[in-house]
Amino acid sequence: MSESLIEERFLSRLTDGPLAIAPGLAHYFVADASGAECIIRVAQSAPKGFIEKVHILYVPTPGENALITALYALGAKQFEHVPTIDEAIIKLGDWLSDAKMGSQLYLAGTEGLIGKAVAKGEECGLDHTAVQCEQRGSLARRVQCVHCKTMIENVTTQPTKCPSCDLLLLVRDHYSRRLAAFQGVCINAEDPSEVVEIKEVFK
Amino acid sequence: MSASDNLIPVIVSKVVEVNSIIKRFEFKHINGDALPAFSGGAHIVVEMIDGATKRKNAYSLMSSPFKLGQYAISVRREDDGRGGSKFMHEKVVPGMEMKISAPVNLFALDLRAKKHLMIAGGIGITPFMAQMTQATELGLPFELHYAARSASQAAYMGSLKAQFGDAVACYCADIGDRLNLEALLSDQPLGTHVYVCGPKGMIEAVVQTATNLGWPAAHIHFEHFLSPPMGKAFSVHLAKAGIDIDVGPEQSLLEAIEASGTPVNCLCRAGACGQCETQIVACDGDITHNDHWLEDDQRASKKFIMPCVSRFSGKRLELDL
Amino acid sequence: MTIQFRNETFRNDFTYANSPGNIPRFPFPFPEDEYMYSTNVEPHHATRVGSPFEHGFDVDEHYVAEMKDRALVLADDPGRCQALPHMETAGWDFVELVMVSKARDYPDLFELTMEGDQWHWINKPLQIDDKFTFGDASTLPCHPMEYIGRQVQGDHAILDQRDGNLWLDAGIITAQADWSLDFDVGMNFFEWHAPVPLAHELGVFQRALKFLLSLPQGQPSRRLNWTLTVNPRLDTSPENYPKWGPDKLSVTPDNIGEKIHLRVELQTFWRLPRSNAILFPIRTYLMAMNEVVTQPKWGRRLHRVIRDLRPELVEYKGLSRYHPMLVEWLSKYDDGAPTSPGIFPD
To answer: What is the ipTM for the molecules in this complex?
Structure first.
């Protein structure tokens, strides 16, 4: 399997596209970094009354305030910004625990944010088909080392070294929504003396 | 292969007149064995030998999935139907031997649901009776909304109310009680699944309202109670078998194919499950598509037919069977 | 027939072997001289007395040793057995199916007494004698799926059926051909098969899914799948790849006959009645090349299949390092004579 770099069909991946308004009673937007621009774009083209059903959670890039101001100015029913993705996910869980059927979730930003928010949504009973994603900013991947189960954040290289067990991992195009992670499998397990070039590919 | 290949011999142990239009039938295994286990929402296919006519109709199991000594179904009499329900009402009596299929579930509870919202119209109540027993036993939260024309036609309404209390809400049209779907579907906690079984209009209203409110399709479950429509007799050529068969006015194409000894996959016999989808080799005439399975472009192509419910009129129909 | 259970290992010293009488009952997976993916599903009826298809759940001379190996894997990595919360009913379905089948098919080895929901189960080979309440998990030492999964050969996945798809929502998987339950649990049919090359393009999975969704109760089906494994190692999980991957470098022309094993999965599919889920047992049979070629028909045919295997499949099945060496070795057992149809030896 992993001795080759077979281009695998990417069927376990979530779908990605420009966010578009879906019918719904409540609309939850979660974004980080430049993902805020996607929310602004959707809100500006929305029909009257839409923004009153909108809840926004935002993780800004440190030091960046202009997008916070712009999001605030949309006048959503609820708007909060938190410093980290993990805090945003906890907050999202709080919001969804009181949500009703008919809620839509819109995610814009990095792989890490999108993956974790989808998993949290499913945990709260939100079907993944009621979730839309628009990838913005870093393509860095979250990877589970299949050998020691460590979750490795912000992986940009292929292969990548597991910081915990030190194995050199091939990042497969095999994605688990539940774990919000790609699978990393040792690339030179059969012959550990094999030298594999490391390239930066997920930028 | 299909569920009706391995039929189970049963004996009719009880027939109860529930009201003026509905009878309940109970079956026991002919050897006294336990019947196969099942889950709420499952149906069985009942084989009816009526003189030279053999009919097969699907009925939801309403009895407890935890009591397998007997099965129970309820049959609403359809006087202008093709005769299956009439046969059940007029000819089936206690002590009679019949054959049924093993249970098949195309309307199962999604066991991940945070709440099960059940909406029944008329005789569509039956699958929910097994589901409510299952949900109660497994500790799953549920709510039943049961609509009928009148209290006298609403089978089991009183006993369900007595057994499940506040989990059951009833709506009788004759006294002006109507179910407000929009209000109901707008106020359900995230993770709720809705299930609807009843007349076509009710199913469409629930699916449409929920979809408009933003419910994902995966959370909307429905079961059509469609018995094969009648029509004029027609003939069909089965290309692989190399035979011509005749379909009678009250017979479905599927039943005629089965009677010829040609195997066809099938589960629901009601145009919903997709198993009997059959390719058309040649068609000179019109197909009346009565199913819920084929896409519009497939129908227009005249390349596919669902023999369980659809019919043909014209010069020649040749099937890839 | 009483089975003599072998005392053997699937790791370290690898003492696993097939006794001579066991070789002809191996489920050789090639009915023809060439191999291509297909769903090749057939009814799982009782076929051929003495074959692995005689009973729904085949018990053979490796039973006790395989269950010991499973216990070792689970002790080391409990994540090999996982069930999402809604899968307990399916676990009980699995308990019932296995206990009823084994007690009926192997009455000298297993006994089941049922009085209502009070069950008494005796598994003589594993020296288990338990009483429990069917449907009440607190009366078992662990989840029902794990309880019975530790007493039945082969890996077992349980697939929840909903939304026109099948979801890998539970499993006890300790002898897998390179896939991770911990990673794949919760995925749908297409998602967990995503890494398999070619089959998607061929529409294999669409057809297989349609077939499985309509699987009726009481009418199980089966298919055979295969790969090759160096050493008789059951646990070829991705988790332990660094442990078994280097084995491939140990293959030489001198030891290839004992090192390389044909690894066959007898996959069966069962509709479970109470949960409406599908039980998917993946039963692994291992046989050394030296044992395979004792049956002349199998030696000839295996040579032809391995020689003509498409390059993508050589890669996917992980055979690249020793493929030419194996073709060369097998060629000695192929005199070019025609082979008879079907999988059973002549």
So the answer is: 0.87
